[in-house]
């Protein structure tokens, strides 16, 4: 049983994340989307909102589960008996952070492999930050996130501005 974790903040989930989830789910028996509950950050969406959004958007993928985690990724991987971490690479600028994270995780837990997947070219520019930036200025985010997520983002941004 090959169990992989695709970890991230997913604040919010984008087409780029969904592309990686779909492709990664074909490479393992079970894929856990691990949503980080990072208490130091001030996310737009609560952990429950992020988890429930991703669950809804991945319900067509039978071997994908969505779970939140706190603390270290290596501890979450041990707890879930996962052997693989999946991370998406968009550009060389991602590489520096990602290789550091992968090495640090590997030093801590050598049995855990990190596999980098290149994002699809059409999402190579896309990040949750880009989505929030466009949304905050009333921009069109329909090319960035699924249609059902758009009103949720707009509601959050409008609420924040009040
Ligand atoms: O989507 P993101 O914010 O780029 O995801 C980053 C994430 C969640 C993969 C990373 O911050 C992480 O694994 N955090 C958990 C804490 C941890 O294990 N840190 C290791 C630091 S070297």
TrEMBL record:
CDD domains: PPAT. It catalyses: (R)-4'-phosphopantetheine + ATP + H(+) = 3'-dephospho-CoA + diphosphate. ATP binds at residues 9-10, 17, 88-90, 98, 123-129. Keywords: ATP-binding, Coenzyme A biosynthesis, Cytoplasm, Magnesium, Nucleotide-binding, Nucleotidyltransferase, Transferase. GO terms for molecular function: ATP binding; pantetheine-phosphate adenylyltransferase activity. The record marks 17 as: Transition state stabilizer. Its EC number is 2.7.7.3. InterPro entries: Cyt_trans-like, PPAT, Rossmann-like_a/b/a_fold. Its cofactor is Mg(2+). One of its GO terms (cellular component) is cytoplasm. Substrate binds at residues 9, 41, 73, 87. It is an enzyme of class 2 (transferase). GO terms for biological process: coenzyme A biosynthetic process. Residues 5-133 form the Cytidyltransferase-like domain. Pathway: Cofactor biosynthesis; coenzyme A biosynthesis; CoA from (R)-pantothenate: step 4/5. It holds the Pfam family CTP_transf_like. It is found in: Cytoplasm. Reversibly transfers an adenylyl group from ATP to 4'-phosphopantetheine, yielding dephospho-CoA (dPCoA) and pyrophosphate. PANTHER family: PHOSPHOPANTETHEINE ADENYLYLTRANSFERASE. This is Phosphopantetheine adenylyltransferase. It comes from Pseudobutyrivibrio ruminis. The gene is coaD.
């Amino acid at each position: 049983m090959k169990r992989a974790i695709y970890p991230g903040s997913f604040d919010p989930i984008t087409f780029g994340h969904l592309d990686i989830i779909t492709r990664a789910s074909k490479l393992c028996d079970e894929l856990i989307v691990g949503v980080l509950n990072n208490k130091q950050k001030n996310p737009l969406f609560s952990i429950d909102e992020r988890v429930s959004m991703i669950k809804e958007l991945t319900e067509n993928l039978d071997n994908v589960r969505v779970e939140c985690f706190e603390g270290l990724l290596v501890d979450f991987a041990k707890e879930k008996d996962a052997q693989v971490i999946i991370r998406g690479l968009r550009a060389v600028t991602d590489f520096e952070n990602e290789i550091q994270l992968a090495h640090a995780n590997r030093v801590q837990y050598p049995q855990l492999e990190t596999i980098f997947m290149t994002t699809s070219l059409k999402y190579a520019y896309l990040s949750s930050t880009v989505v929030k930036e466009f949304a905050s200025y009333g921009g069109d985010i329909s090319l960035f996130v699924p249609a059902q997520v758009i009103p949720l983002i707009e509601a959050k941004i409008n609420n924040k501005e009040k």
